[in-house]
Each structure stands twice: as C-alpha cells, then as structure tokens.
Amino acid sequence: MEATLKDIDVAGAICRRVRRRLIGGLTPSAEAKATFLHAWQETRLAFEALGEQLDRLEGGACGAR
Fold first, then answer.
1. Is 27 within 8 Å of 36 (Cβ atoms)?
2. Count of C-beta atoms within a 10 Å radius of residue 63
3. What is the rounded radius of gyration, in angstroms, for the C-alpha atoms of the chain?
4. Rounded Cα–Cα distance for residues 65 and 61 (Å)
5. Over the stretch 13-42, which tens digit does the pLDDT of each residue have?
6. Residue 25 sits in which domain range?
7. DSSP symbols for 33-56
8. Rounded distance between C-alpha atoms, residue 36 and residue 34, angstroms
9. What is the pTM of this model?
10. What is the Cα–Cα distance from 13 to 29, expressed in whole angstroms?
11. pLDDT exceeds 50 at position 65
C-alpha cells in the first residue's frame, strides 16, 4: 500500500514538473510535437484507467475530478 501511495505522489509530481516546463516556455519542435502529443495521449489513457480502478475501489469517491 505504501509503495502505491508513493507512486501516485510521484506521478503527480511529474505532472506538475511538466506543467511548469510548459508554462516556462518549453516548446517542442515541429518534429517533436507529434511525439509529445502521442505521449500525452498514452499518459491520459493510463490516468483514466487508474481513475476507473480507484472508483471501483471506493465506489466512486476517489474519482471526483
């Protein structure tokens, strides 16, 4: 359980770090933009799947977004 909570904290920290970089002006090149968008799409799908799993665990209480 503790390792899972740490993983969730790490995932949140990574999201915040990427957001700060984007706000700070990180702009991918035209060639890299498709790669960035694909990586984001895959990450979003993983987060949605995790959210669904947590919703089942708590009967929906963890899925408030």
1. no
2. 15
3. 15
4. 10
5. 999 999 999 899 988 888 899 999 999 999
6. 2-63
7. HHHHHHHHHHHHHHHHHHHHHHHH
8. 5
9. 0.71
10. 25
11. no
